[in-house]
């Protein structure tokens, strides 16, 4: 009998987890959140510090704000099963309220800059409550279409009332208001980054805790079967509305953090482009896991802010990545990593090493061929439009070598075909390895019996 098992009339029963194991399990979340806090603390200094790479610090601030935005969206999509095409409304209105409040603070309103994200969150929650009472009566496709209509309505209203919303130019603000506290004015980028990081970590912790509450569990039940939830005495409409208000609050906080970073809010912050970006982030990262939207937010932000500096085709690459995720990795980055980790534990690295090497090589070859085909086409389009040439991503990564200069289009197609062939071969190797292990397990079971 195994150590710790309990003897009974039916044989040995599995042992209950001991105190040490339970404490170890309870300590994992603390270690993960502590590690996240440490990363946020050290990230700007690893990238150059306060007087080093200012662009990197700004990028980190946008990463934090986008992470909160994506996590708030996943409260609807992943937790409650509500597909929204107008989530940018709550982030945009939160940013608008934050900018208005900041301007009032400059006129004498006793509001610390450090509390402006909370004000933006409250603004987003109010708008979420107003729209949630109307939109959450139904889930599924009706909710998605109504959210799309509300998003377009708010964008049109922002354009119709420029004196209220700022029009195309937006509403500018100045985040350096009030007297400094301990020498902190929130003027330097490094100071606003740490404010953004602190609020982002607090918001992520709050959303993680919300998913563990009875409300979060009930939202998952509404997602799976709203009719059954109604049968046991709960109102699915009320659960949806409450989760929408919570998601709108955190989205408004994200919009306020973004407004503090760029010191302006415009009608574009309410548009469908921003709603589409957060949807891409959650799907690419994986909506079934809490960390999925974080990974998706990092991916989308890096493509929008870093890759866009090197190539005008970044939106095409983002779209291709989204399509590939939906078709081949429906669980997103987080789901794929969890599945591969499970396979690694069950089958071992020896059996999966060859498929992994082939798959990784195939992806690299396919991406290289795709870039070789796309970049010359974009350069030609810019040349015909008499626009200024834009350096491409591969040239920046290869020390100035001009992509497409020595490879005709048909060769790029051949390279892409080779990459696809390597991926197909990797899939066959993996299927053969899995089949061999299953056959060996069946033989062992027959021998044991």
UniProtKB/TrEMBL annotation:
Pfam families with a match to the protein in the record: BPD_transp_2 (PF02653)
Q: Name one GO molecular function term.
A: branched-chain amino acid transmembrane transporter activity
What name does this protein carry?
Branched-chain amino acid transport system permease protein
Topology in the lipid bilayer is annotated as: Multi-pass membrane protein
At the top level, the lineage of the source is Bacteria
Keyword line: Cell membrane, Membrane, Transmembrane, Transmembrane helix
Q: What is the lineage of its organism?
A: Bacteria, Pseudomonadati, Pseudomonadota, Betaproteobacteria, Burkholderiales
UniProt source species: Pigmentiphaga litoralis
Q: Where in the cell is it found?
A: Cell membrane
Asked if the record carries the keyword Transmembrane, the reply is yes
Q: Which GO terms describe its cellular component?
A: plasma membrane
- Tell me where the transmembrane regions lie: 26-47, 53-73, 80-99, 111-131, 143-165, 192-210, 278-304, 316-337, 349-371, 407-426
């Amino acid at each position: 009998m195994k150590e710790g098992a309990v003897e009974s009339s039916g044989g040995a029963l599995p042992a209950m987890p001991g105190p040490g194991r339970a404490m170890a399990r309870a300590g994992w979340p603390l270690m993960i959140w502590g590690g996240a806090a440490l990363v946020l603390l050290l990230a700007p200094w690893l990238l150059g510090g306060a007087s080093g790479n200012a662009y990197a610090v700004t990028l980190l601030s946008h990463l934090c704000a986008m992470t909160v935005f994506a996590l708030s969206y996943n409260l609807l999509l992943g937790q409650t099963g509500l597909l929204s095409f107008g989530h940018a409304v709550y982030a945009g209105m939160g940013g608008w309220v934050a900018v208005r409040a900041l301007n009032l603070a400059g006129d004498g309103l006793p509001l610390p800059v450090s509390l402006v994200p909370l004000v933006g969150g409250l603004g987003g929650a109010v708008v979420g409550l107003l729209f949630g009472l109307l939109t959450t009566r139904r889930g599924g496709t009706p909710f998605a279409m109504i959210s799309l209509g509300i998003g377009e309505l708010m964008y049109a209203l922002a354009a119709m009332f420029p004196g209220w919303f700022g029009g195309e130019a937006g509403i500018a603000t100045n985040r350096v208001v009030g007297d400094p506290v301990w020498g902190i004015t929130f003027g330097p980028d490094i100071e606003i980054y740490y404010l953004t990081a602190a609020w982002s970590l607090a918001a992520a912790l709050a959303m993680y805790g919300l998913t563990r509450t009875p409300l979060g569990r009930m939202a998952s039940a509404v997602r799976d079967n709203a009719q059954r939830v109604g049968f046991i005495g709960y109102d699915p409409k009320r659960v949806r509305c409450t989760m929408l208000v919570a998601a709108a609050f955190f989205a408004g906080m994200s919009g306020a953090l973004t407004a503090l970073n760029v010191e302006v809010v415009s009608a574009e912050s309410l548009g469908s482009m921003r709603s589409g970006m957060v949807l891409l982030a959650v799907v690419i990262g994986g909506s079934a896991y809490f960390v999925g939207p974080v990974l998706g937010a990092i991916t989308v932000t890096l493509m929008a802010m870093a890759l866009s500096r090197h190539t005008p085709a970044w939106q095409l690459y983002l779209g291709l990545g989204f399509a590939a995720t939906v078709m081949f990795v429906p669980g997103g980055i987080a789901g794929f990593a969890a599945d591969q980790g499970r396979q690694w534990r069950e089958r071992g690295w020896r059996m999966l090493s060859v498929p992994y090497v082939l798959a990784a090589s195939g992806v690299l070859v396919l991406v290289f061929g795709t870039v070789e085909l796309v970049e010359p086409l974009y350069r030609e389009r810019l040349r015909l439009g008499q626009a200024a040439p834009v350096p491409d991503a591969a040239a920046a990564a290869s020390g100035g070598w001009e992509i497409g200069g020595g490879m005709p289009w048909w060769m790029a197609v051949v390279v892409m075909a080779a990459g696809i062939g390597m991926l197909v071969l990797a899939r066959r190797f993996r299927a053969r390895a899995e089949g061999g292990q299953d056959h060996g397990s069946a033989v062992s079971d027959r021998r044991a019996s």
